[in-house]
Amino acid sequence: MRCFRPRSSKAVDEVDRTAVVVEKRQASQNQQVSRDVGAGWEAGAQQGPKAQLSRIMRPNDANIVGNVHGGIILKMIEEAGCIIGTRHCNTQNGDRCLAALVRVEKTEFLSPVFIGEVAHVTAEITYTSKHSLEVQVKVKAENILTGNEKLANKAALWYVPCSLQNVDKIMEVPPIKYASEEQEEEGRKRYEAQKMDRLETKARIEEVVPPPPNQEQHTVGFSQSSLIHLVGPSDCTLHNYVHGGVTMKLMDEVAGIVAARHCNTNIVTASVDAINFHRKIKKGCVVTVTGRLTFVSNKSMEIEVLVDASSLVDAEKGKYRAVSAFFTFISLDKDNKPLPVPPLKIDGEEEQRRFDEGKARYLQNKAKRLADKERQQ
């Protein structure tokens, strides 16, 4: 959920007037992307196959103050990754397959995207193992009236190719050629790191989150929120399992509600830690997306978001944990300047344990940002 300054009605009115320009430009870009992808494969894909999606942001993509939801951006990121991953995995002979999302690495929201701007999502395959591939995605926001562009998001996603004949069958991934041995080695390190983290996360996921009792303000229970959604055909892939992007959009909405309830102010998504997809969610399932505060610093809030699924027609199977992630939000004043976040009131050993773990993640991420800044200088 993204909440920046309200946009003027002029920006909204210009959307339809500029749509024709976008469509013409997009047609040209799509042709160029197709040529670039084809050329990349013919040249041995030394930089990895690429794909691009572009779409003008309309009022139904935004919240009540006029800026695009973080969940919309996450959904577009996943769509681009799924397209390039599926396309690449079907370049070999054998069963046709569909790239299924299993993990999203930490995602930073660098700049807001507003109604009337065009979001350009570029996806590139940067590493392949025997049964998985890494797709790195960049999102640029363009004001086509002024020509101004800005980098909005960067993300890394991991996919596995599932056979269309048997969704439980994981296909082999065609290898890509790397520009250097160092590039391949760096990719292998990222692969091993995410594989280890996924196994550790799966081992420690909890049971279904219980509903909170009535709580006083600024406690975990006061802001804890849940959203219930029935998975329909429009939410699903060719396998009739829910798109990862649909799930991420719901998760961002719930996390935004939690943050807003705690602060009672304007809020914005600052980053998303790794999103792990533990089990598939099938069409017809009911998903319960629950968000709860785990840690609060001076200027930010960490919100754990858990997705539980259950069959609507076969209740005996019970709920299971499908997806988990941590979202970070900040509070803003009317001029979009960061505000202090109200302290979180802790109640009980379990909440204290989650708070301590959240603090450790916060310090680790802070140290990583400082190290990245020093390297860039």
From TrEMBL:
It is found in: Cytoplasm. Keywords: Cytoplasm, Hydrolase, Lipid metabolism, Repeat, Serine esterase. Residues 341-377 are annotated as: Disordered. Residues 351-360 have a biased composition (Basic and acidic residues). Residues 47-165, 221-335 form the HotDog ACOT-type domain. It is an enzyme of class 3 (hydrolase). The active site is at 63, 252. The keyword Repeat applies. This is palmitoyl-CoA hydrolase. It comes from Dicentrarchus labrax (European seabass). The gene is acot7.
